[in-house]
From TrEMBL:
This is Transcriptional antiterminator. PROSITE patterns: PRD_2 (PS51372), PTS_EIIA_TYPE_2 (PS51094), PTS_EIIB_TYPE_2 (PS51099). Residues 290-397 form the PRD domain. Pfam families: Mga, PRD, PTS_EIIA_2. GO terms for biological process: phosphoenolpyruvate-dependent sugar phosphotransferase system; regulation of DNA-templated transcription. Residues 500-639 form the PTS EIIA type-2 domain. GO terms for molecular function: protein-N(PI)-phosphohistidine-sugar phosphotransferase activity. Residues 398-487 form the PTS EIIB type-2 domain. Keywords: Activator, Repeat, Transcription, Transcription regulation, Transferase.
């Protein structure tokens, strides 16, 4: 039942002949703007029942029209666009125009509540994590920036925020979407510059590198057009300046081209800033990618450790080995400079290659101090793909046929996206439906098609012409399960022969800890008292958790810390009497992967056994029933200790 004030607002809405603002309604009713927002939400269903639609227009006000909205789907799209557009507007006004923004005025202009603005700020601050140190903040009813605000930090913040606004199916579409923030002439000039360079030097550069460096150039050109420049910090030694000379030449070449096209001038500081991103994105003058000798020695150690763990020889393919070294070099530069490169496929990589991801993390962490870096999940994910590609390369090259009758542009779009998720050595060929039916397909391993195909006796993965992320996940899953992994015979029992050597009944415990932190601290303390780990191991595990999640869909978490702080390898178990939320999943069992540095070579065999246990029917059945400490001991085959 409506209150007197709500009925009064309903009558006002039905009588008004033009748009009115929330502030006007608040004055008429003698209530707060927040109350008006709640009244409008309450009255909207009532208006719909009477055959009216309530329209809220950002920056204009509210009106009621006779008839229903066109369709709910369009309303939802408009609302989503509205959220993104107002966030971009905040970025434009505060970072690009350096304007003060009133919380109330912005809410009135976009017809949103203070809580919605706070959600916008939270979302944008999440994009700024691990970047320039700047954060959006609300103080004294104003939306401001906190942190050390200067041209460099603002540029870095804009580049990081652009990542969240790059929406589209390909390179051109993603950058064009930034036109709400930057001049379209600048965007088009940068697109032409980057694509021409890639074609001229004939390098195969991943799309995320292209979009990232384009974003940097767009921000720099936008700043320069407004007379804003980055100060040259002069923080490089002469030797480093010489080492980066090819990149400085390339940076000035890029900026010189933009100067001619856009009639803007760039400073030395702008050029040096661009150099850092050119190195990070591996866009360099051809054949000038040089690796410091001290770093090369460490990179070689990383590759040697991975060879022992995944049973490959990188020296069998010198070109691929050199590419791995170059990737490690670019990765190290990014991590040292604090340049964050978002890995769009991280969740897929962790899901599809979980064991290889953990092995790669452990190996990188063992050399992180020597390289003076703090590793990140995004970078580990990129490296995992390189290692997985090499593992696949040890098998035969796969041939994939793409059937796409929608035209060249659509075929190119799908082809580019396939190359992003499938190993680079695969041969991918495109064909029309009629050509596919005419050709001998004996040498084809599987087909990706945008249309239904008949009379073709090969595995087919059906995708949409715009190839969605779900399509890519399906292709990747099919490739892993059907092409690379032959069917495995069912195990009659859990062997776990390697794992059993590193178990002890005293470290299979049951508890009621209240949080992830408490679980880790409790187990680390027990291990330290028994001499298995050193002081600081708990903190190293907690630090790992802040970088990314170690839980999985099997209701298990697999935390691990710095291997240099482990005296003796032991795999310990913490069974929760009550399941707890870890990060992404609810967890019933925590398995601590405590590997000493001198046991690194057998860590894969231990992980093999652990994943055999984690994915076993026996453990799944135990989870469905009443699982306890004794059940875990029996599953692990160490029940005799208690008999």
């Amino acid at each position: 039942m409506l209150s007197a004030k709500q009925k009064e607002l309903l009558n006002i809405l039905l009588r008004q002949q033009q748009k009115s603002t929330v502030e006007q309604y608040a004055r008429q009713l003698n209530v707060s703007k927040r109350t008006v927002y709640s009244y409008l939400d309450l009255l909207e269903p009532e208006l719909n029942q009477r055959g009216y639609t309530l329209l809220r227009s950002p920056g204009q006000g509210v009106e009621v029209i006779k008839g229903k909205a066109i369709n709910e789907e369009m309303d939802e799209e408009t609302d989503l666009f509205s959220i993104e557009s107002r966030r971009m507007e905040l970025v434009y006004r505060i970072l690009l125009k350096q304007n003060k923004v009133s919380l109330d005025a912005f809410g009135d202009e976009f017809f949103i509540s203070e809580s919605s603005i706070r959600k916008d700020i939270l979302a944008m601050n999440q994009l700024l994590e691990n970047s320039s140190g700047l954060r959006f903040n609300i103080s004294h009813k104003e939306i401001t920036l906190s942190g050390e605000v200067n041209e460099r930090s603002v540029c870095e913040a804009l580049i990081q925020l652009n990542e969240g606004f790059l929406i589209g199916n390909d390179f051109h579409e993603k950058l064009a979407h930034l036109s709400a923030l930057y001049d379209m002439q600048i965007i088009q000039a940068v697109i032409a510059l980057v694509t021409d360079y890639i074609q001229d030097v004939k390098i195969n550069l991943a799309e995320h590198y292209m979009t990232n460096i384009s974003s940097v150039l767009i921000v720099l050109a936008s700043f320069a057009s407004a007379g804003r420049h980055i100060q040259d910090e002069d923080n490089l030694l002469d030797y480093d300046r010489i080492r980066f000379l090819p990149n400085q030449i390339l940076a000035k070449q890029f900026l010189s081209t933009l100067t001619e096209q856009l009639n803007v001038e760039f400073s030395e500081g702008d050029a040096q800033f661009l150099v850092e991103y050119l190195v990070a994105d591996r866009i360099q003058i051809h054949n000038f990618e040089k690796i410091m000798e001290a770093d090369r020695v460490i990179f070689e150690k990383i590759l040697q450790k991975m060879e022992m763990l995944i049973y490959v020889q990188f020296s069998d393919n010198e070109e691929y080995r050199n590419n791995l070294l170059l990737h490690l070099n670019a990765m190290t530069f990014r991590l040292r400079k604090g340049l964050k490169l978002k890995n769009e496929l991280l969740k897929q990589i962790k899901r599809e290659f979980e064991m290889l991801f953990n092995l790669t993390w452990v190996v990188l962490e063992s050399e992180a101090d020597a390289l003076h870096i703090h590793i990140s999940e995004d970078e580990v994910g990129f490296l995992v793909i390189h290692f997985q590609n090499f593992i696949d390369l040890q098998q035969r090259t796969k041939r994939i046929l793409l059937i796409c009758p929608q035209g060249i542009a659509t075929s190119e779009l799908i082809l580019n996206r396939l190359r992003m998720v499938l190993p680079a050595f695969n041969a991918i060929e495109t064909a029309s439906t009629s050509k596919a039916l005419r050709c001998n397909l004996d040498s084809i391993d599987f087909i990706v098609s945008t249309v239904d195909v008949e009379d073709i006796h090969k595995p087919v993965v059906r995708v949409s012409p715009v190839i969605t992320d779900e399509d890519l996940r399906n292709i990747m899953s099919f490739y892993q399960q059907q092409i690379l992994q032959p069917p495995k015979s069912e195990r009659s029992e859990l062997k776990l022969s390697t794992l059993k050597r590193y178990l002890h009944p005293d470290f299979i415990i049951e508890g009621e800890a209240e949080s992830k932190e408490e679980i880790i601290m409790n187990m680390a303390e027990l291990l330290k008292q028994a001499g298995y780990v050193k002081e600081g191991y708990a903190q190293s595990m907690l630090s790992r958790e802040t970088v990314g999640s170690t839980d999985n869909i099997y209701q298990i978490a697999l935390p691990h810390g710095d291997i240099k702080l482990v005296n003796k390898t032991i795999i310990s178990f913490y069974l929760l009497k009550t399941a707890k939320k870890w990060k992404n999943h609810t967890v019933k069992l925590v398995i601590f992967f405590n590997i000493a540095e001198n046991d690194l070579t057998i860590s894969k065999k231990i992980l093999d056994d652990l994943y055999c246990l984690i994915k076993s029917r026996e453990l799944a059945e135990a989870f469905r029933q009443k699982i306890d400490q004794r059940t875990i001991q029996v599953l692990l085959g160490i029940g005799e200790y208690y008999d």
